[in-house]
Amino acid sequence: MVYELDLNVQAVIHIHHKNLWLQLTGIVPTTGKKIPYGTPEMAREVKRLYQSTDLKHQKIFVMAGHEEGIISFGKDLRDAGDILF
């Protein structure tokens, strides 16, 4: 979904990091707790966040229903990694 929302995105990083997940939940755009990972519902939720939050500029979101799951994205892997760390 991220690639579809922004044609400038050429890299997506998906990590699991409990401490970072806990720290970022609710601070950066965060999906609903009941939205399961890897589903059409998650794709719709990411689209909703992209359209209704600052996700387009922050380029990072937490998946509240996918414990420890965080996604960052950017023009390349370096950009997506810099946003994440």
User: What name goes with the CATH superfamily?
Assistant: Class II aldolase/adducin N-terminal domain
Largest sheet, if any?
A: 3 strands, antiparallel
Strand content: 15-25%
Structural class by secondary-structure content: alpha+beta
Count of separate DSSP helical elements: 5
Mean pLDDT: 97
Q: How far from one another are the termini? A: 22 Å
β-strand number:
3
Question: Helix-strand pattern, N to C?
Answer: HEHHHEEH
CATH topology: L-fuculose-1-phosphate Aldolase
Can you walk me through this structure?
The chain is an alpha+beta fold. It has a single domain, classed as Class II aldolase/adducin N-terminal domain (L-fuculose-1-phosphate Aldolase), CATH 3.40.225.10. Helices cover 42% and strands 19% of the residues. The protein has 5 helices and 3 strands; from the N terminus they run αβαααββα. It has helices at 2-5, 18-24, 40-52, 55-58, 77-84, and strands at 11-16, 60-63, 69-74. It has a 3-stranded antiparallel beta sheet with strand order 1-3-2, with helices on one face. A hairpin with a 5-residue loop joins strand 2 and strand 3. The mean pLDDT is 97.
